[in-house]
Design goal:
4 helices; seven-stranded mixed sheet; 7 strands; alpha+beta; Aminopeptidase
Length: 170
């Protein structure tokens, strides 16, 4: 990264060696709006799930590399929203890379891949208190479609519901 300009962002399909990417993103700051850090067992289970997405085609997870250095991860998986099939998206960018357009570029590419692969709408959920995540959704082209509630171990979590239709990405 020279002068704050994004040099080259690459989406690398998730692989066996990518567990450390999840471990680095498992800090209190990075998981503030996600219920806090996960246990190692939970991280290993999520890593296995990401590998399964790659194998099954029910989604796609990627390590986000910037200039050859791991900067986070992003991906999509098939889900149901309001009884309809959709692709849900997720993205995490390590603090050293935040504020440089990495998440916007990575998530935009993931949305385009999800739409091209499935032809389905893409949904994103952001904690109502996470303005950075909501701003990212707006920058990528999502439209706010209301709020919902997700159950969690710490009680219900209110989220914004963001949508992109396949037609809006053509």
């Amino acid at each position: 990264m020279a002068g704050g300009i994004l040099m080259q962002l690459t989406l690398v399909p998730w692989s066996d060696g990518d567990l450390p990417v999840l471990e680095r993103a498992n800090s209190a700051d990075m998981t503030l709006f996600l219920g806090g850090p996960e246990t190692l067992d939970d991280l290993e289970a999520r890593h296995a799930q990401y590998l399964e997405f790659v194998e099954s085609g029910d989604g796609a997870m990627f390590r986000v590399d910037v200039d050859g250095e791991a900067a986070g991860y992003a991906g999509w998986w098939t889900e149901e929203h309001a009884g309809e099939p959709v692709c849900e998206i997720g993205c995490a960018v390590e603090p050293a890379w935040q504020g440089r357009g990495v998440a916007t570029q990575a998530l935009g590419r993931v949305v385009d891949l999800a739409v091209a692969t499935t032809g389905r709408p893409v949904v994103g959920y952001s904690h109502v208190g996470n303005e950075a995540s909501s701003a990212l959704c707006r920058r990528v082209g999502f439209e706010l479609h209301g709020r919902g509630v997700f159950p969690s171990d710490d009680g219900d979590v209110e989220v914004n519901i963001w949508f992109i239709t396949p037609e809006s990405r053509r």
